[in-house]
């Protein structure tokens, strides 16, 4: 299994379908804060006229991706097919699942494969440990990268100049009273993670939650994602968790290196 090289492609404006871009903006306008939207609310949110927003919404209703009560609109479960198309067509997320299953069986902890996208970490594949912590980080979940152990591992792999550019552009929000929101401190911690080759976070996004992560690299040394485990901080000490999980994660990452 090899991973294709990613190419930077310059696309001429005449080759872009603006309606498709705006349609995706319309779908992603729905979130935890705006589960339902009127045409007027959507128009304001995605910079459309009210009539154009209404046509987009009615089109989504027509193809089954949205529903309406005549005033408000909301997405239907059919939208999940869009994400499923990626999981079904991308070989790497599917190929990693058996490795996650073995890790979960070995460690009795939930395991994840994640990638960096912009300022967020995206959980792509996950195997839950039976009768263990369920964090809600299901495939497709996005978290601010600095709050996640996988996100920090991925950020730490950036060159210093790119890392400083990231820090200049991101707003650090305190999700708990222990979240690191000082950019100089975060930079130092990310450099330390790069040197250690693994990351452990506690209480950064949610009190009582610990994450442990290592990078996954290809045979050519290209970073392709992060492996991580999730557990409660009360399950054992930080040192015990590191001693038990880091070697297993690194061994799995080294095995994956031969496959990607």
UniProtKB/TrEMBL annotation:
GO terms for biological process: negative regulation of DNA-templated transcription. Keywords: DNA-binding, Transcription, Transcription regulation. SMART domains: HTH_ICLR. It comes from Collimonas pratensis. PANTHER family: HELIX-TURN-HELIX TRANSCRIPTIONAL REGULATOR, ICLR FAMILY, TRANSCRIPTIONAL REGULATOR. This is Bacterial transcriptional regulator family protein. Pfam families: HTH_IclR, IclR_C. Residues 17-77 form the HTH iclR-type domain. It comes from the Bacteria. Residues 78-260 form the IclR-ED domain. GO terms for molecular function: DNA binding; DNA-binding transcription factor activity.
């Amino acid at each position: 299994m090899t991973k294709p090289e990613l190419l930077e492609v310059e696309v001429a404006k005449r080759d872009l379908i603006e309606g498709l871009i705006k349609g995706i903006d319309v779908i992603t306008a729905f979130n935890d804060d705006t589960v339902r939207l009127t045409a007027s609310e959507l128009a304001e949110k995605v910079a459309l006229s009210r009539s154009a927003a209404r046509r987009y919404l009615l089109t989504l209703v027509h193809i089954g991706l949205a529903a309406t009560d005549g005033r408000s609109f909301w997405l239907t479960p059919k939208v999940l097919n869009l994400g499923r198309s990626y999981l079904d067509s991308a070989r790497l997320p599917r190929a990693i699942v058996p490795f996650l299953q073995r890790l979960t069986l070995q460690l009795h902890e939930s395991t994840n494969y994640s990638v960096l996208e912009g300022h967020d970490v995206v959980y792509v594949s996950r195997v839950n440990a039976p009768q263990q912590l369920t964090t809600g980080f299901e495939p497709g979940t996005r978290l601010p990268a600095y709050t996640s152990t996988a996100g920090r591992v991925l950020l730490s792999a950036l060159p210093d100049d790119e890392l400083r550019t990231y820090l200049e552009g991101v707003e650090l929000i305190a999700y708990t009273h222990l979240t690191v929101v000082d950019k100089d401190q975060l930079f130092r911690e990310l450099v330390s993670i790069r040197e250690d080759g693994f990351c452990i976070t506690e209480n950064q996004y949610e009190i009582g939650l610990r994450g442990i992560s290592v990078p996954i690299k290809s045979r050519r040394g290209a970073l392709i994602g992060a492996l991580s485990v999730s557990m409660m901080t009360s399950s054992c000490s930080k040192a015990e968790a590191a001693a038990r999980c880091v070697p297993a994660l690194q061994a799995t990452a080294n095995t994956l290196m031969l496959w990607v």
